[in-house]
Every structure is written in C-alpha cells, then in structure tokens.
Protein 1
Amino acid sequence: MKKIVHNNYEEEKMEEHDWVVGRGLIDSQLKDKDKPLTAEDLEELEYSKPAYFLHDDGHECVLNKEALNIVKEEPDLLRNHEQFIEKDKEGQWTGRFKDTAVHFIKFHFRKKEQEEIYKALEMAIPSLLENGISSVHTDDLNFAGDFEKLWNTYRTLENEGKLLIDVWLHHYIFNKNDLADYLNKWKLRTGDGSDQVKIGAVKIFLDGTQRLHTSALREPYSDRPHTRGTLIYSQEELRDIVQLADENNMQVAMHAIGDRAVEQALDALSNVDTKKRRHRIIHAQVLAPDLLQKLEEIKPYLETQPGFMMDEHDQTVNWVGTERERYCNPWKTVLDRGIPFTCSSDTPIGPLSPIQEIYAGVNRMDLDGKPEGGWIPEEKLSVDDCFYAYTVRAAELEHHENEKGKIETGHKADFILLDTHPKDIESRDLYKLQVSETWINGKKVYDRSEQKK
C-alpha cells in the first residue's frame, strides 16, 4: 500500500494545499496488520501533507495526523456525526470515521476545482456509454463539494457537445439549514434545468451500513447484540426536512438500509403527497411485513441495488439472524405488492454495469454461482422485471414516462444493442452479455466493434 501511495504522490511536486488521497482501501485484507489502520499507522507514509484513504465501500475512511488536525478545527463535524468518529479507550480520535462523518470530511475538505471536476467527468462518460447507460441520477456534490461548480461544469460539457448523457444532480444535505440555503440561493427545483442537466432530488442519509453495524435496525444485530445501529436524525428533524422539500417542489431521496430507518422514512413521507412528488427510499434492504404494508399504502419509489447481494448474501444472516433474513432484499414480494422500484448501481459502491445488476436480480447469486440455486430464491426477478425497473420505472422517477424509458413513437431514441438476446441464454450466463452499441437521441455514441480496432 505504501508503495502504491508513493508511486502516485511525490511530496515535493505537490501544491501547498494538496492532500494525499486514495480510494479502495480494504485494510482487513492487509496481511501485515491485525487491526484496522489508524492515524498512527499512517505516519509510516512519512508525508507532512494531510492524507485521506476511503474504504472500498465508501462508508469508512482513515486520516493521518496532519489531516486529523485540520478536521478537528471544524466544529460542525460534531453535529449529527459524533457517533461516527472512532475513539480509543482514552477518548482520543483514532483517525477513523464512518458514514456521514466520511461524507462531511469529503464535502468540506476535499473540494474539487472546476478543472478537476471537468476532467473527471470527461473520463467517466465513455465508461457509461460502454455499459449502455444513457441517463444517470448522481450525488456528485458529495465528491465535488460545491454545487455551483458542479452545475457549471456539467453545463459546460453540455454546451461543448461532450456530455452525451442525461444527468439529474442530487443535492446532498446534512441538515435542514443546508436545504434552506439551497432554496434561498437557487430558483431551480427538481426537474428544472437544461435539456441534459437537471436538478435532482434532495439526498439525505438516515442511517449507515450493515458492514459497520451502523444501519438502523429495530432489533439488535445478531452478531453484535449490544447495538441496533444508528439513526442520524430524530423523527421530528426528518419530518421537517421532508416537509420543507416537498413544499418547495423538491423530490427527496433517503438512504435507509435498516428496517428502523425505513420506518422513519415512511413516517416522514406519510405527511406529504409522495405519489405526486415521487419521493424515494434508497436501498431499503431490511424490511418486515408491516413495512411492506406501509410501502404498499404510501408507495414511495424504492431505489434498489441487486448487485449488493453478490457480496452480502453470505453475511446478511450474521447481521440480522434467520428470522429477519427472509425480509432482506425481497424484491419479488415488492413487485407483487405493486410497490414501485427501480434498479440502480450505487456506483462506485456497487458494479456500474446494469448487466451485472440484472444478473444478480434474476439469479440472486454471485458471479461464481453461489449460493447454488440462489439466495432466498423465491425473491428472484425475471429479466423483464429488471429491464422494466431500469427503464420505465426510472423514467417515472423523472416524471418523464411519456418521453423516455420505452422504444415507442414519441419517446427519445435511447436504446442499446446487445450481442445476444437475454432470453436466448441461460440466466446464469447473463453477466456475460455485452453492449454492442449505445444510441442516445437517435445518435450512435458507442460501438464496441470500433473499440477493438
């Protein structure tokens, strides 16, 4: 790890305010360390610059002492995030942070310049086209740190004819004041914008993640009975945020993994017209019979990630136990009960490829074919179900179901050509499908045969 870092960062060539930054850390796999890395460990890198390393799943990070000294000067870090700051037995910060504290640090200390944002987007677009993606809903503010710079960069790419895809930019907030600031500074609301760049939803995290035992469960974790995870907001705080957004024509997208967080989201949504605004709950991985009933009544959109199952199917029972496992990622039940849901990637956490996500939704197995027969096989989806969730339902979230999401007269000519029809192969081979061509607005923007030349 140290070699990789030093190969990428020469301190003498770094600008005065540059940070050493890395992503993809899985320090539990380091063979020469028997515990997670701390700020003390990162001193071995011998940089006088601040260093920041993000875990592979994006929900945990570790800072060196130089970076730690900087973030300690930010008093708002302790607001709503203190429970995600790791401390040692003496109460001292170790340099490790979880969940919203990670996002807070990225947002406030890792702000990107417009040129850096431009280059990143320019490099990313070909990967989207290669995977047959014509529209994205994205939380780039989390990484860019400045909504105006982010918006202007996307608009610049659009004006230069380099954007190609449609983009809905979510506005990530930490509290009600953040939302009020946006509403005061910007007149644009969800769905407003240009032909290709539009304002997306208000993005808010209600809990953490199962791996870190910070997603909020009603009952204790099976493998850690001393904790039920963490709710980031009180019910009153969340109701106020959702109410303010709804009154101002802003869609809300709430990260809620555990059943306690889903329950909190549903309570907040019960006070607004969810069907009109099409608010959504992201993930909703742990459900229950009463929550399914409430979802059926309130009908928020669920934004699901079938690909998560490929990494978590063998761990979920440890987190929730056998009784609750039955109600984890129950997408066939959700479908049968008429609860609207989309498929998505949650990239860079999940696989970008919709093909892999569809494979996971249809088979409920990882790419090695495990578990045999599929995890909770009665919850498998059909190929058509997954394609529908990626197209028609996704267009509905944008209130564009009469313009996008179908190959019909009067709709945008956004479509892909696959090398094989999905129904002409075994379901276990779905992940092998490849996008041959991607067409957006009737124009071919990707041709795999040309990439081989």
Note: The CA atoms of residues 76 and 432 lie 47 Å apart.
Protein 2
Amino acid sequence: MEQIQTPHGVPLKKQIARALFKQKVRALLLIAPLLIFILITFVIPITDMLLRSVDNSIVSDTLPQTTAVLETWDASTGELPDEAAFAALYHDLKQAIEQKNHTKLGTRLNYESSGMSSLFRKVGKDVSKMQAGISYKEQFIAADKLWGNLKTWTLLKVYSPKYTNGYFLAAIDMKKTADGAEMLPASERIYLNLFARTLFMSLVITGLCLVLGYPIAWLLANLPMRTSNLLMILVLLPFWTSLLVRTSAWKVLLQQQGVINDILVWLGVVSNTGRLELINNQFGTLVAMTHILLPFMILPLYSVMRTIPPAYMRAAKSLGATDWTAFWRVYFPQTIAGIGAGAILTFILAIGYYITPELVGGTQGTFISNRIAYHISSSLNWGLAAALGTILLTLVLVLYWVYDKIVGIDKVKLG
C-alpha cells in the first residue's frame, strides 16, 4: 500500500508523529518549572521526612565493632557483655571522639533513655585515661556505673540496626525493648491523646465553618451582584490581614480582662470575680480557628451556589413543595460539591495548623503540629518529628480515601 507523503516527500505518518513529539516537548517545557518547584518544595522534603522517621544509622556507624559483638549477646541472661564488647566499645569510642561523633550518639540515645547524653559527653575524658593491658570492662565501670548497667547495653543492642521503628513506636506512646514493643505508662502517654484531640477539634472546626458559612454563602449567591460583591469584601478581609494580627486580636478579645468579659460584666451576666476563661483552652482554639478558616468554606460554597438557577426553587414551590422541602430536596443536593470542597479545604488546613493553637490553645488546645514543631526547633528530635508528621500525613490520606468512598471526590468542585 502506497504511503501518503507531504509535498516535501516525507511520509505523512512520520510527519504527524514528529509534530506530536514536538508538541509534547513544548508542553513539558511549559510545565517544567512547576514540576521542578513541586519536586524541590514537596517531593524531596516528604522523602527526607520518611527516611528520617526510620533512620538509625548513627549507632552502627559510630560503634561498628561494638554492634557487631552485641549481635551474639543475649540480654535475657541478665549478664553484662564479655570483655570483647568493652574492648570493641573502647576502640569505637576512641575513633568517634577524634571525629567528634560521640556526643551526637549520646543525643540520639538520650531520646530513648535519659542520662545517655551526659554519659557520652564525659566518655571522652574517661577513654583518654584508659590503659591497655587492663580490663576495659573494669575501667569503663569504674569510670561510670552506667556502663555496668544492663539497661545501657540493652539499649545499644536494641538500637544497633541501621533502621528502626522506634520513632514510630514513640509516636504512638510505645517503646522498643529487647522483648518487643511495650506501651508506656499511662502517665507518660501524650501523643495518642494529641492525635485524637487534633482530629476531633479539626472536625468540630470544619462543622462550625459549615454551619456558619452555608447561610452566608447562600445570602451572597442570591443577592444582586453589586451588593454581593460589596459583602464579599468582608469575607475576603481576613485574607488581607496578617494571621498573627488576627490571632493576637482574639487574645485581646477573649482574655479574662478582655473586651468580651468586660461586656459580660457590664451587662451583669457574670460577676467581676467570676470572669469566664475563654482563652488558653480548647474553646479559644475553636473560636479563633473557625474565624480564620471560615472564608475557605464560604468561597467554594458561594462558587457552586452561584451556578444554581433560582428557577429550580420556584418550580418546586409551584408544584406544591414547602420552603423546607424545596430547599432540602432541590437546592441542598446541588450544593454537595461546594460542601465537599469547603470541608476538605477547611479540615486539611485545620489539622496541620500551628500558630493559632500555639498562641491561644494553652495546654488543652494545642494540636499535634505544635508537638512536631517542638521536636524540630527545641528538642531537635527530628526522627520523632518525622514519624509524627508521617502518621499525620497517613491519617489525612486515609480520611481523604474514606471521604472519596462516601461522597466521591469527583463531585468536589471549586466553581
């Protein structure tokens, strides 16, 4: 069969393929800056977070000979390792001290057991005084009694692998031991409660934004365009104000000597000595975050409601439906897409919020994000922070999947 050719003698099929390839390359070049931006600001940090949450190479890299000897040591016997383990520890620490890595190792192990940081900080002086030909085991125990503690060596053995699930266990109030994972005492469990509080309060904030935002969006969608645009400015006004300023304003309003309590005292609702505690608790976080996130609910709702023809409601009423029946059977189902978009936006923003709960939440209104920030900036336990962040990310993805199964993500529209 004779191939169709262009006027230049090139087969038409080849010419079309070449044109399509150029078109794809052009499209790729157009989106390349966005792809690079996403790769640098999202994919690489997420990957690094996932690796940090399981990385434990500092123990085996700093104490390679010691961890090799401890592989054959059985902690369940209740006896300390033999002389070979202490000799290996001496040689490993001697090299680590020269490279100044022993303090980093102490910091890592101190996350699992307090006292390890100071033990490894002073080990530099202890190792420099040790002499060959004398039992290293006796010299280490004489230098610090912790080297004669079975718990210290068990800790080294448990955390000798390059990868560990210890950070994830700590993130769910468990600890890694020689016998397996164990729950922490009830008085030391904080993270599961924080996750539950974060999830609960995020759902409540999303619900409050929906209850408050739905009638506002309906009003904006049904008013004349000129009036609607003027009122929309009031909705968008928070976006033009600093988040720190808005949160600080709520501190002024809600504190016991603040504006709201002063008005309640003036009205006689409460006494001057019985002022309400409206801040540094969950109530303060709910009020401030609902105010801040409300526009993220209103805008998707408004964009969907604006497209609903008013004739639908009039037709339902002309056929005998009451106002409530017309709204519930005709109008409301058409706003599901806006509700879904607003709920997703509000919930995802709420569950990862940091500044507002930190400023107005006190001890009872903070979120898991505040604890993550603490480990990154204060305790420097980046592994635990990465594990907490990974769990939070997984939780959001699971809830997103559940939402897709119940509502259907294809129904979500932003207008």
Note: The chain has a mean pLDDT of 87.
Protein 3
Amino acid sequence: MTTATTPPYLDFERCFHAVSSRDSRFDGQFFTAVRTTGIYCRPSCPARVPNPENIIFLPTAAAAQHGGYRACLRCAPDAVPGSPLWNTRSDLASRAMRLIADGAVERGGVGSVAETLGYSTRQLTRVLTDELGAGPLALARAHRAHTARLLIQTTRMPMSDIAFAAGFTSIRQFNDTIREVFAMTPSRMRDDAERRPNAFSTKGTVTLRLPYRTPLNPSWIDWFLSAHAVPSVETWSDGSYARSLRLPHGNGSVSLRIEPGFVSTDLSLADMRDLAPAVSRIRHLLDLDADPVAVDAALGDDPQLAAAVASTPGIRVPGNLDGTELLLRTMIGQQISLAAAATHTARLVDALGEPIDTPHEGVTRLFPTAAAVAEHGHDVLTGPARRVTAIVDVARAIADGDVNLHAGRTIGDLRAELLALRGIGPWTADYVSMRLLADPDILLDTDLVLRQGAQRLGLDLRDCDRWAPWRSYVSMHLWRTALVNR
C-alpha cells in the first residue's frame, strides 16, 4: 500500500461522520481505505467502524486500488452509484470521468480520450492523478474490474470471453486484476455466485440491479419515458420501459423497472464488450447518480417550491442514451405535440432504422444513423420544408463530424456549436445540453409549459440565481406542476 492521505477537498470529519452513521447517501462520493486491513469500503459498509487514525478517505475506487487496497467483499464498494460530482462539476477531471465510464479508454486508448477533450495525454494524466488520486489507466482498470465482476457473477460466459468483453488485453491481466482488487480468483468468485438461486442468465443477456441514492419518486420518470415513447424503438407498459440501444460494438435492448432502492435491468447485447457503456448510459438516462437529498434540501428551502418538492421527493432530470437521437428527436418535436412528434419519429424509424439483433417485444429497430437521415430524410420527413431541411442539414453535420455530441463537452462549447446550426434556437440548445451533459443547472425559462408551472406557483423566473446549482431540477418540478394540473 502507498502512503496516500485524504485529499484536502474531502473533509475528514464530515467523511468520518458519514461512515460512523453508515450513511448510504455518500456511497460512491468517496471511499474508506483502512490501513490496518488493506481493504477499502463504501461509507455505508456494515462492518465495524475503524479507528480514525487507521483510515484515509479517497475520491475514487481507482485511487484505492492504485494505493494497493482491495475491495471489501462484504459491502462491494465498486457496486455503488457514481459520484454526483461528475455532473455538478464541468472541469477536465469530471468530463474525463464521463468518457472513461463510457469505455472510451478501452475503445481508443488514453490518447484518444485526451484528444477528444483537447488536452495532451500528459496533461490529462497529471490532472486526473492530482484531482482523483489515479490516472486514466488506473480509472479505466477499476471500471474493467467492475464489469468483469458483473459478468462473472451474472453470466455463464467462459472466463476468456469475460476477460476480453470487460476490456482486458490478456487472460493474465484479467486474472491478476481480479485477484488484486477482490482478493479472490475469478473461478472462486463464480463459485460463490452459483450458491445464490437464479444468479445466472445466458450469454448475451445480463440481469442487474442498478442502485441509486434515495429518495427517488418514479412518477416523473415514468411519465417522461411513457409520454415520449416512439413505437419500434421504445415501449412502455405497466411501469416497465424497454428500448433498443445503439452501442459502440453493436446493438442491444434493455428492459427497466424502478424498484425501491434499485432499477431492475434486463440487458440483451449483441456484443458483451458493450456492457459497461450500456450500464453507464442507462444510469445517465435515469439520473441515478444524483444526490437527491442535497437537491431537495436546497430547493425545499424556497417557500414557493416547497410543496412541489415535498410532492415529488427525489425528482430526476432524464438524460439520454444517444446524442444524435436526442438532438434529431428534439428538432422533430419542436412546436408540435408529443403525440405528433412520436408519429413523425416512428415514420422515420420504420423507414430508416436498422433491425436489432436482440429484439424485445415491441422493440425491433434502432433510431436511424445521422448518415441515413442526411441521405434520405427529405424523402421520409414531413412538415414545413424549412424544418425538414434544418433536420437533414444537422444530421449531415453530425455525420460529417462537424458537430460532436458526447458527454465530455463543456456546456459553453456545446451550446455555441448548436446555436450556430440553422433551425436550433436557445431552447433546443439548452434542452439538449441539459440532457446530454447531465448539467444540473439549466433553467428552461423560455418553455411555455414550464412558464405555466411557474405561474401556478407564483414564481418569477427572472429571479433564479437562488436555485443554483440545481436549476435543471427546478425545470422538472415546474414542468410536472403544469402537467399534473391540466
């Protein structure tokens, strides 16, 4: 183990209080490394609280692993919600973490991630090591270990297939990492999992429980997903949401249901290398890494918002699964009803969307690629010619690489890039930025429905600084206030 110490931005007393009270709200926000045992835990670990002189607090699991600590088998510290800091902050470290969680290092290497962010590999490594206690390779290694554990415990895939699906470059690297991180061999980990009933699914399918910080009121997410569902791409039935997935190595489908404390998730993947990106994108879609207690405490202090917050505790800001789909669907839906937008989008999907290899009932196609919309959009899309041309031109800009829709963008750069495109105004730029980057502080104050919600609550949207940095959540509360009172 290294002689690492608690970084100054993690207040030791505050962290120790969270550990002493076993506060699960802080799971994923920091990790407890115990010098005397060489183990690291989540704050809510049920084991005896160590003496304060024997522990340090670290910002990431990767920092703990890099320091020579192994994961606690009792609390599984890698299986926690992600840190909300990656969304509330927009610095280089946070933007890099979003890309690393999506598997960018495994697909293109550290150099590719650095280039995407506009920095050199050396600069990126230095900043991540200083801020997060581990460089990009160590952070990616921690994600690979987590993915491997999921595949070992939930599928019957051969270990060699799991090693390469998780992103390891050799069987030896895979075996060494599992032993170092979890203090057991892959085969023993599977033997332990086999003792649990119904632990395994077949190759290509994985059943997971995705944890989140409570509270989470599912009513808003349920309404949002069901109201925007597009036939062939998505279905909604009795609290269960299913849809197709376009992923880096292939396609897939997922079925979700929000349960107390977790989201029950059934994933079918054409290529198991896409497990980690799929999980990352699903968590982003449902805003599962948010800190709802912090959000509700801040907004609930406003007397005019207090009733809305109390009626929907833990409201979430829906993210997205694919930036191209988000932008083009937003443009299709401009100035028309949700039902009309679904009809227009379904027509586009039926004409240009590719069939998926892992269909779900009612989910049979992917949303079309930008290249397909650019080439054939004029033949399929209907409505005002100006709007159709704008959609096709934006699709062409995405296909040509002139517009980059990824989670590593800064909001200023992304918004400016979007506003430079014909047919995209401030509302569309803000809405897409909010959902693509999971930015928690965007107030959609030009939205008609949101303004109706503000009027019901007697809010002056010009006086919005007091809600920072949670104005995206205010947008959700105002939308819901208007919609439930219609």
Note: The longest strand covers residues 250-259.
